[in-house]
Amino acid sequence: MILEQQFSRSVLVTGGAGFIGSNFLRAVCTSQDYQDVKFTCIDKLSYVSDNTTKFIDDLLKEDNFEFIKADISEEYDLLYRLIVEQELFTDVIHFAAESSVDRSFEDPLFFTKNNVLAAQNLLECVRLIGNKRGDPHHVKFIHISTDEVYGEQRTNESAAENTLLSPSNPYSASKGAIDLIINAYIKSFQLFAVLIRSNNVYGYHQYPEKIIPMTLYSLCHRQPIRIHGDGHNKRRYLFIDDFVSAVLTVWNKSEPYEIYNVGSDDEVTNIDMVNLIIRQYKQWKPYSTIPPITYVTDRKFNDDRYDVDFTKIRRLGWKPQTTLQQGLDKVIRS
Ligand SMILES: NC(=O)c1ccc[n+]([C@@H]2O[C@H](COP(=O)([O-])OP(=O)(O)OC[C@H]3O[C@@H](n4cnc5c(N)ncnc54)[C@H](O)[C@@H]3O)[C@@H](O)[C@H]2O)c1
Ligand SMILES: C[C@H]1O[C@H](OP(=O)(O)OP(=O)(O)OC[C@H]2O[C@@H](n3ccc(=O)[nH]c3=O)[C@H](O)[C@@H]2O)[C@H](O)[C@@H](O)C1=O
């Protein structure tokens, strides 16, 4: 490992131009706790950031940050040069994925090609640098998965980390496939890989196709607020700062080969979520004209609810700090 003098660790952060990745990078690059860590963001740039680096432009001036534009599902040779030949990284934190369930129904094959190959190109490079250095743990691989790989849970049912995977849509199937491939790389090659499966995350810079930013965008632009089906489906929500904290906790404290659910106790039906946002928005802008709620065709399959048991990560000392009301207030007023 040929680390630049002042850095103790060098982390490849994939997908860092998007919603969660950009919030993660801002948290670490501006923190005194990580001034001795180099963060390299690699991202193809997509619609979620208007094909720009707008959510991380302010970080480009930081001494411990740099950006590389690349599609890691297609540019294996570049990854090989950076990770295996130049030995630039001690850790990989893999956020990059096409993340929209709705879009995955429209182009399932693209989701599989993009999400699976992006992850496995990285895994191959992590495996090969481990071979080269005679240590499969030479590079630590933190993978951001999702609660959707378990499929839906019935009322009073929750998924533990050893629950069998049962994804229901092309997005979650691509994520479940990656989890299974990572499991095989752990068993066959003893990679230092750790998986994080989270409930819904919301916060700053989330693209307005997801329900919370969609509702806010509709309120601000006086457009109909679109509810899929009858709005009975439920989700559990985690504020972005709490999820970033969970990723940092796992990255810094986890043993290899572990899986961590990252959950929330804030479960809300979609229609209740929309009405909650409207209520809080009106407190902020009391004279706003509130657009209508429009019920549109439901998804081809819409998981009823996701409920994960997150006792395990609590044992690492993590728990959510932000209530749904507090988090929504921060997003509405941002
Ligand atoms: N948002 C949530 O509620 C949530 C919950 C659980 C898990 N996740 C997971 O967290 C991760 C980040 O999600 P997000 O909501 O920030 O997504 P996002 O869509 O906002 O950002 C994803 C980023 O990854 C990049 N990317 C995608 N494919 C790439 C490729 N082949 N090469 C390089 N860059 C690529 C995109 O350009 C984008 O900047 C994803 O892996 C997602 O599955 C998200
Ligand atoms: C853990 C995953 O969270 C996100 O996926 P999910 O599909 O649950 O998020 P959405 O915000 O797209 O949908 C939540 C819920 O709201 C309904 N809805 C959405 C958008 C809209 O315009 N109207 C709606 O009614 C939708 O049908 C759902 O029931 C995240 O995107 C993903 O990456 C995750 O991993």
Automatic annotation (TrEMBL):
InterPro entries: NAD(P)-bd_dom, NAD(P)-bd_dom_sf
Pfam families the UniProt entry points to: GDP_Man_Dehyd
Domain (NAD(P)-binding): residue spans on this chain: 12-330
Top-level division of the source organism's lineage: Eukaryota
GO biological process entries: nucleotide-sugar metabolic process
Protein name according to UniProt: NAD(P)-binding domain-containing protein
Lineage: Eukaryota, Fungi, Dikarya, Ascomycota, Saccharomycotina
